[in-house]
Amino acid sequence: MIVCGADGSGPAPWRVAVVGVGPRGLGVLERTAARLAQHRVGRRVELYAIDLVEPGAGRIWRADQSSCLLMNTPAGEVTMFSGPPDRGLARAGAGPSLAQWWRATRPGDGGGEVAYAPRYLSGRYLRFVLDAVESGLPDNVVLHRVRGCVVAARRAGCAGGWELILDDGRTVEADRVVLTPGHPRPELDDEQRALSQFAGSRPHLQYDRSPKLHSGHHDGLSKVVDVRSGLRLLDPGLPPANDPKSRGWSLLW
After folding, report:
1. How many percent of the chain have pLDDT more than 90?
2. What residue segments make up the domains of the chain, in order of their start?
3. Architecture of the domain whose range is 14-179
4. Euclidean distance between CA atoms 108 and 113, whole angstroms
């Protein structure tokens, strides 16, 4: 059965929505675009890139971060393209790694295969990748960038599609939905909420939203909480004895 568009003029577009477009969601879009370029289909295709912060970079790799924050992977080992660059323009299936893009766009900036790029620079690279993917789409494929938060999904239509509901009331209809939400931001439990309120009432304390408290230290000069949780590490730092404003400080890697 051929499903016609709303105006009855022809086959309805095939719609794919990616919810959460940081690196993983961007990778889905890049591979989808590359396959659509290799295997042309006889109908219109609509791709939806939905992200609360920024389609492409997402929240974790947003480009407004401090330059002091670095990636933990060498730039030469990072690429969002599924194939190496060729003599053509960057596009889905062929494009530079982060290191190659870094050297080409910021010569003399210290970029190299073994260099660790600032996180904000990675965000700019992800923007570049999404722009390259969109500019190289076939004529029958269009990309919609949607900034918003999907709060619900429900079945829609007789063909088994989906209706995505955003927090501002907008809706997106799709035949297929890919969920790549990335790092969650869990709500505080009762114990964490009490600790957060305790720290909020004391200007020299700051509560860190890590899931487990590992140990506590009292050294007479400062009160430091040592928090460890997987790849995330909060280590205690000892402030100078003559700096009363530094009580309770920590270093975060």
Report:
1. 60
2. 14-179, 190-252
3. 3-Layer(bba) Sandwich (3.50)
4. 14
The Cα–Cα gap between 170 and 150 comes to 9
In this structure, what token pair is assigned to residue 31? 């591979």
3-state SS assignment for residue 233: strand
The DSSP letter of residue 203 is: T
The burial of 80, by beta-carbon neighbours within 10 Å (0-12 exposed, 13-18 middle, 19 or more buried), is given as buried
Q: Measured between alpha carbons, how far is 207 from 61 in angstroms, rounded to an integer?
A: 23
pLDDT digits (tens, 9 = 90+) for 15-47: 999 999 999 999 999 999 999 999 988 899 999
Cβ atoms of 181 and 20 within 8 Å: the answer is yes
Q: Of the candidates 54, 77, 60, 180, which has an alpha carbon nearest to the alpha carbon of residue 120?
A: 60
Angle at 143 between CA 142 and CA 144, to 5 degrees: 120
Q: Residues 153-169: what's their mean pLDDT?
A: 88
Residue type for position 141: V
